[in-house]
Write a sequence for this structure.
């Protein structure tokens, strides 16, 4: 973990690699999104129309992502995957008088390069590091861009090993071997609905296999021990705090600027959509506690989520309602004696949450119900 693993530092080679990997990545993403719901989203939630802290006009907009000011020295990168898949997740950067901190490795090196170019439009200060908010592929597969440019990659100490376990091992396996358990679930599905969900999951598994193979893994070389958090970072007249909270991946870190009430939440916040809870270390209850903390912060807090539009406390309240509804429906199924394997397929989006997006059922409510059942000790 001391050095980037297998990162090529030669700029020309790195650029050639980026192009190759991007072409491979982009072609596999077409199918990836064919298996998931993809809704174009605005960069800002309605509550920020007219808010002077958040710039209505981006400093750069490439379609697949745009970058705008959300505070003094604070910028948010908001992705629109419906227009291209270079970045896929949101990110941003913090610029002080002495140095800058970039957030997220994105899903591909061209995504990380885009954000670096955006930073250079506003400042030439040295980059202290690029922080992955967690290990997931859409936040980390572009890390090699930073490695190739001598920028340290920061992340929760658990990120490097999870990247190797989840994506590195995929690179050494045959596709048929990786997909076998997912194909089994499709063939063993007892209802049409269960079959539909199992097919969606199979499609995503196939595409994750392709993406892992298309990108070179560059592991963080600046591990952050969660036991040492919160950690203050001084960028020169701009003080940020790094904190860790449970919920989405077991490796989640966020960056907060308390003086300006701005929070870069990573995937602890999905704006305008259901939470993604497929990770083996995701926790429904832990995440709900984290959201209670978010709700306790200033009423004018600007949240930059891991996915979706920039939002405020209005969405935090709604997002908590989403969690409450999942728990409520799971409890009803549990009390009615529906077994875990069937219950996971039976969540229904209620009227009050219509319009809240869902990336994929089998990455959101499906695993949430399975986790809740496991908590209740149910079969
Ligand atoms: Zn994630």
């Amino acid at each position: 973990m001391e050095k980037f693993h297998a990162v090529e530092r030669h700029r020309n080679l790195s650029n050639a690699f980026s192009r190759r990997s991007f072409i491979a990545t982009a072609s596999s993403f077409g199918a990836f999104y064919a298996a998931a719901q993809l809704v174009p989203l605005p960069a800002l939630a309605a509550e920020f129309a007219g808010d002077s802290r958040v710039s209505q006009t981006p400093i750069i907009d490439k379609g697949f992502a745009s970058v705008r000011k959300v505070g003094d020295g604070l910028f948010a990168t908001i992705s629109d995957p419906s227009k291209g898949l270079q970045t896929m997740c949101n990110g941003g950067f913090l610029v002080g008088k002495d140095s800058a901190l970039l957030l997220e490795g994105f899903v591909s090196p061209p995504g990380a390069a885009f954000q670096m170019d955006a930073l250079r439009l506003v400042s030439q200060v040295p980059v202290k590091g690029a922080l992955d908010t967690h290990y997931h592929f859409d936040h980390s597969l572009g890390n090699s861009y930073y490695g190739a440019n001598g920028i340290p990659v920061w992340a929760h100490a658990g990120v490097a090993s999870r990247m190797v376990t989840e994506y590195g091992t995929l690179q050494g396996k045959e596709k048929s071997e990786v997909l076998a358990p997912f194909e089994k679930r499709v063939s063993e599905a007892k209802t049409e609905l269960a079959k539909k969900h199992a097919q969606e999951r199979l499609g995503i598994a196939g595409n994750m296999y392709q993406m892992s193979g298309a990108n070179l893994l560059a592991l963080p070389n600046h591990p952050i021990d969660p036991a040492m958090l919160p950690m203050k970072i001084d960028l020169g007249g701009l003080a940020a705090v790094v904190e860790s909270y449970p919920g989405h991946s077991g490796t989640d870190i966020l960056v907060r600027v308390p003086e300006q009430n701005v929070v870069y939440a990573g995937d602890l916040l999905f704006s305008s959509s259901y939470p993604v809870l497929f990770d083996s270390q995701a926790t429904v209850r832990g995440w709900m506690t984290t959201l209670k903390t978010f709700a306790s912060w200033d009423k004018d807090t600007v949240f930059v989520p891991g996915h979706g539009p920039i939002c405020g406390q209005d969405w935090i309240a709604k997002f908590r309602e989403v969690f409450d509804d999942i728990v409520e429906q799971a409890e009803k199924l549990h009390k009615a004696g529906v077994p875990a394997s069937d219950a996971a397929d039976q969540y229904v989006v209620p009227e009050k949450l219509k319009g809240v997006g869902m990336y994929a059922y089998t990455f959101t409510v499906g695993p949430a119900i399975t986790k809740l059942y496991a908590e209740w000790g149910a079969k």
